[in-house]
User: What shape does this take?
Amino acid sequence: MSNSRAEDETAIQAVLVDSYKAWAAGDADGMVANYTPDATAIMTGSLRDSRDVIRDSMAASFEGPLKGSSTYNKQLSIRFVGRDGAIVVSESAILFAGETEVPDDLRKVNATWVFEKRDGQWLIAAYHNSPVLAPQH
Assistant: This one.
């Protein structure tokens, strides 16, 4: 097989970078361009159960509270599940208009991205995030 895992990792990271760039441009269509049609996104208090629903929700947000925002993203891990599946874990946060860094750790989330390779292309099949909480001692 000519496809190495390094090539797959690079392709997955490119999908994420494209999504982040589209977010910064306020481009909901571009943000979900590499989502599967049946993708899901779960965030605190919401379930978005298709690429179209995710796109529509993001378009409304880009016109409202997320106008001019971008994201902070740090990949924590990637692991492959079989030939055509991968799970990426990241630390992320929203940078609101005018911000260049996350003002405090309370806005950071841990995110899980589930990727599926369809017809040779890595696509986002599911996304879920949860607030990063301070460790309890």
About this structure: The chain has one domain: 5-131. The helical segments are 5-24, 28-31, 51-63.
